[in-house]
Amino acid sequence: MENRIHNFNAGPAALPLPVLEEIRNSFLNFNGSGMSITEISHRSKGFEAVLNDAVTRTKRLLKLNDQYEVLFLQGGASLQFCMIPLNFLSQGGSADYVNTGTWAAKALKEAQIQNKPVKVAASSEDRNFCYIPQNIAFNKEAVYVHLTSNNTIKGTQWASLPDTGKIPMVIDMSSDIMSRPVDMEHIGMIYAGAQKNIGPAGACMVIIRKDLLDLCPGNIPTMLNYRTFAEKNSMYNTPPCFGIYTISLVLKWLEETVGGLEKMDALNRQKADLLYSFMDNSGFYKATADKGSRSLMNVTFRLPSEDLEKRFIAKAAENHLGGLKGHRSVGGCRASIYNATGLNAVSDLVAFMKEFQSQA
Ligand SMILES: *Cc1c(COP(=O)(O)O)cnc(C)c1O
Fold first, then answer.
1. Which of 115, 199, 265, 320 sits CB 3.0–4.6 Å from 194 for a disulfide?
2. Average pLDDT of 79-104?
3. Is 9 contained in some domain?
4. Is 1's pLDDT higher than 70?
5. Is residue 299 situated within a structural domain?
6. What's the mean pLDDT in 56-74?
7. Are 285 and 303 in contact (CB under 8 A)?
8. Which residues pair with 190 in a beta bridge?
9. Parent domain of 248
């Protein structure tokens, strides 16, 4: 409708159409208030209900027990890179990081520039990050293990999370949060910039196990301390109101229209299988990630030449298929097929890819 294209952008990325429509319809008069959601006080009952709705839906969708707090911060996932070591390594101890690509490396760097003791427990740099390391020997004394569940740029994803025993995992789920159910057993914290899979840029979701809050020191800046946000239900200062509102609508769509994360996962697998199996049999398009490590969210691939890739991306855009250019650091092509990008978008993409190949 309304000239909307199939959107394969990596982030900011596609949002469910019913969510965008609901935003449009309520934008001038939120909930009978006579004001827009962007005009009301964050201390109003109306906004408080939105925030609590987003928290409640997150807890239900991920089946969180009451040990977890759901917070909304600003500064994107990138601010979390610095907050994690700042908060959790102030009382000594070291952390293990798994380096699976660009974002994982940035998370590691923010710990290193604070002179925090961190160790790279495993890395897939030896083969340009095309796989997820297995059978990792974590330091049993580590305060936390940091992972990136889905590597947005390199197109890999942990098929299942490692067993870290008593060590809490801290996981950057920016590009696969709410795409599948999560086994919370060894998870201390999850964080995600909203703009890939759950909302607009500007809000970062943080799910934190309460015992980790005890590690947060008193002598760091207030706005960088997780305890500040946990103690005030994310309202120490003005939270990213519009982002939280949109997240609440996306989560409502996930629960009420999609039917929960098992259903979302099944659909996401169907979408990814369609694309990968077509490419594997094409003799033309080549997925860049190893088979057991492929991302269900960001499908990265190459064509036989850079020139063909350029033509492919341009021709796709003419056919209302947008956002297929790979990240500027790696080149090639990438189809991001997040929750809101439907099976019809993927089958239209595959049809276009067949057509392009036949004419190349
Ligand atoms: C996009 C992305 C980030 C950076 O998010 P910002 O909100 O822009 O800081 C971090 N980690 C992953 C895995 C990402 O995909």
1. 199
2. 97
3. no
4. no
5. yes
6. 98
7. yes
8. 171, 207
9. 18-258
